[in-house]
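User: I'm putting together notes for a lab meeting next week and I want to include a structural view of one of the chains we've been expressing. I don't have a solved structure, so I'd like a prediction I can at least talk through. The sequence is below, exactly as it appears in our construct file.
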Amino acid sequence: MTDEFEKALQRALRPHGPPEDLSARVLARLDASEMSPARAARGDSLPHRVFRSRWLPAALAACLVACIGLVQFRQHALEAARANQARAQLLQALSIASDNVNIVRAAVAREENPDS
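Assistant: Thanks for the context. Below is the predicted structure for the 116-residue chain, given as structure tokens.
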């Protein structure tokens, strides 16, 4: 059963040469697709058609939106870094103030209770 399948597969996948009229068909399509002189004089070249395309403004708008988004994201990241730095400084200041309050509290307690 597998030998029959392999033989059928080999027959189906046997290489075939190109059709005899392939080169004539390719040349005919190349001749047909060349730009006519009237179209070339009118300026219907590829760059001109791209600028008239509706996709170019959409692509430019998408790039503009992406640039604005990246700038906003970077600004947000910088503000978040500044906020974290300010938070760390505040916590350090509160820690120092707490230590100073504890020192003053201990001094006041000693003044009030000189016996202990």
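A couple of points you could mention at the meeting. The radius of gyration is 41 Å. The CA atoms of residues 58 and 64 lie 10 Å apart.

User: Perfect, that's what I needed.
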